[in-house]
């Protein structure tokens, strides 16, 4: 399976349903491929994706924008955790 | 800015949320495609914003997620309308203002004429008016090319005209025709004769045969330059003589004014009639009764301006001043002053090209008038053309 994927050069995020995370310094983060918000507080935000749960820790965290497949979080991000 | 405007037009609510599963509520409304923004944690839960139309749909979702919603603030156009629903006058006023604005922008408010310095503005305005171009006209009705053509036909001094409409102001640009210089016809042979008696002081002959000398006395009508010019032993040709012959000439001039003079005295009384002008309509708004008697009138046109834009609103005021005519006798110094002024005007306009060498004035008085006799010694050009009738063709050799 892996050989086939490599030979066809299909991006890994599509094959394994991995989320795409884009940081802008430590001030903002975009998570594409989210399936919902599990926890939303000013110190911690947990985002559910198909393959894992991502937790962002920091101060003054807010959800700037939420759509069914993407989330933008603003604030001072100090730590990120990936839970499988 | 655009997003804010759209949100304001659709109307939105600021709501607070508290309960057991706010995250679940968030996920559920996201799945239903309901937009919310500025959703931030607060002391007693969360605060967010949502469109009014969406907020009305989320009650069952809130119940499902066991959260309580409370509206904190309402903003936007639907709430603004609701607030002023009872004040219908405001709405009608706003609609009327918009309609008036749209309607008024269809008219010509002002006409500016540019580049017609040497032409009479009254004549130009009249020509424009007769060509169907005036203040208060519908902009769509104006046939600019036709008006331009008509004005050019009516005012021959106009070489080029262009009418530009900028908003509600029409600018008429004009280029004037430059008049061709007057050509002197020199096709006929002529002599130069004296226009007055005198003593010649200077002679400049450019064409013809001179028959007089400097210092010689000359009588009125005497030929000074002959048109016949010898070109051989027995041959001569007739030319158009040209000469400038200066001579000292004695002249007399008499001025007369009556002893009694009518003096016009303006009364302090005046009447005013004012009309309010809107586009080309006029409405009288101030009338005062005529006092009777002789009057002289002044018409004043005032236009309302706002930031250098002439509005189609103005006032035409006609003020009539009343006057009396009183007869009174002129004293000798007064009469002399008046007569001297008139004499100076005569010298300037009738003898402008002559030099006054000597002037003797004598003021006399009769029973009904003052008379000023002026004896002049002018130095002036006395050359005058006299056509030679027999020889009609120039350069006709004999």
Q: Could you walk me through the main structural features you see in this protein, from its secondary elements to its overall organization?
A:
- The complex is a heterodimer of chains A (84) and B (398).
- Chain A has helices at 2-8, 12-15, and strands at 20-24, 28-32, 34-40, 44-49, 53-66, 70-83.
- With 84 residues, chain A is mainly β.
- In chain A, strand 1 and strand 2 form a beta hairpin.
- The model of chain A has no long low-confidence stretch (mean pLDDT 86).
- By secondary structure, chain B is of the alpha+beta class.
- Chain B has 5 domains: 2-82, ACT domain (Alpha-Beta Plaits, 2-Layer Sandwich); 110-176, Ubiquitin-like (UB roll) (Roll), CATH 3.10.20.310; 190-248 and 383-387, no CATH class; 255-260 and 329-378, no CATH class; 263-324, no CATH class.
- Chain B has 9 helices and 22 strands.
- Chain B has a 5-stranded antiparallel β-sheet with strand order 11-9-15-21-20, with helices on one face.
- The model of chain B has no long low-confidence stretch (mean pLDDT 86).
- At the A-B interface, strand 3 and strand 5 of A face helix 2 and strand 2 of B.
Layout of helices and strands, plus pairs?
The complex is a heterodimer of chains A (84) and B (398).
Chain A: H1 2-8, H2 12-15, E1 20-24, E2 28-32, E3 34-40, E4 44-49, E5 53-66, E6 70-83
Antiparallel strand pairs in A: 1-2, 2-6, 3-4, 4-5, 5-6
Chain B: H1 2-10, E1 12-19, H2 22-31, E2 36-42, E3 45-51, H3 52-55, H4 59-64, E4 67-75, H5 77-83, H6 88-104, E5 110-114, H7 121-130, H8 144-154, E6 158-166, E7 169-176, E8 190-194, E9 198-207, E10 209-210, E11 217-218, E12 223-226, E13 228-230, E14 236-238, E15 242-258, E16 260-278, E17 281-286, E18 295-306, E19 309-329, H9 332-350, E20 355-365, E21 369-381, E22 383-387
Parallel strand pairs in B: 5-7
Antiparallel strand pairs in B: 1-3, 1-4, 2-3, 6-7, 8-12, 8-22, 9-11, 9-15, 10-12, 13-14, 15-21, 16-17, 16-19, 18-19, 20-21
């Amino acid at each position: 399976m892996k050989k086939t994927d490599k030979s066809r050069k299909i991006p890994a995020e599509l094959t394994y349903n991995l989320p795409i995370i884009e940081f802008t310094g430590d001030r903002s983060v975009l998570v594409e491929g989210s399936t919902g918000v599990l926890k939303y507080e000013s110190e911690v935000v947990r985002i559910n994706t198909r393959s894992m749960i991502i937790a962002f820790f920091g101060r003054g965290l807010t959800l700037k924008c939420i759509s069914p497949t993407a989330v933008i979080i603003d604030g001072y991000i100090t730590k990120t955790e990936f839970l499988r | 800015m655009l997003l804010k405007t759209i949100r304001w037009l659709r109307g939105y609510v600021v709501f607070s949320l508290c309960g057991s599963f706010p995250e679940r509520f968030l996920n559920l409304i996201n799945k239903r495609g309901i937009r919310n923004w500025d959703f931030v944690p607060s002391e007693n839960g969360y605060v967010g914003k949502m469109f009014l139309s969406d907020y009305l749909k989320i009650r069952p979702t809130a119940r499902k997620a066991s959260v309580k919603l409370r509206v904190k603030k309402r903003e936007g156009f639907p709430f603004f309308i609701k607030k002023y629903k009872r004040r219908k006058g405001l709405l009608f006023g706003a609609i009327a203002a918009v309609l008036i604005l749209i309607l008024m922008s269809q008219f010509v408010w002002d006409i500016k004429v540019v580049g017609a310095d040497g032409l009479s503005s009254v004549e130009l305005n009249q020509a424009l008016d007769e060509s169907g171009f005036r203040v208060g006209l519908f902009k769509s009705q104006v046939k600019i090319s036709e008006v331009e053509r008509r004005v050019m036909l009516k005012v021959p001094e106009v070489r080029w005209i262009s009418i530009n409409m900028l908003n509600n102001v029409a600018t008429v640009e004009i280029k004037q025709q430059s008049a061709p210089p007057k050509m002197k016809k020199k096709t006929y042979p002529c002599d130069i004769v004296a226009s007055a008696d005198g003593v010649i002081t200077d002679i400049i002959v450019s064409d013809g045969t001179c028959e007089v000398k400097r210092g010689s006395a000359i009588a009125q009508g005497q030929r000074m330059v002959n048109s016949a010019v010898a070109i051989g032993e027995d041959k001569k040709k007739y030319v158009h003589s040209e000469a400038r012959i200066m001579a000292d000439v004695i002249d007399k001039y008499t001025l007369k004014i009556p002893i009694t003079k009518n003096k016009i005295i303006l009364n302090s009384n005046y009447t005013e009639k004012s009309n309010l002008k809107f586009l080309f309509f006029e409405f009288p708004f101030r009338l005062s009764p005529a006092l009777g008697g002789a009057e002289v009138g002044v018409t004043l046109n005032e236009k309302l301006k706002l930031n250098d834009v002439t509005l189609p609103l103005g006032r035409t005021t006609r003020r009539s001043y009343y006057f009396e005519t009183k007869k009174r006798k002129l004293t000798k110094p007064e009469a002399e002053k008046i007569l001297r002024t008139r004499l100076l005007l005569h010298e300037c306009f009738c003898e402008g090209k002559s030099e006054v060498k000597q002037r003797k004035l004598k003021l006399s008085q009769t029973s009904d008038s003052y008379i000023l006799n002026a004896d002049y010694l002018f130095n002036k050009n006395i050359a005058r053309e006299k056509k030679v009738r027999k020889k009609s063709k120039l350069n006709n050799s004999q």
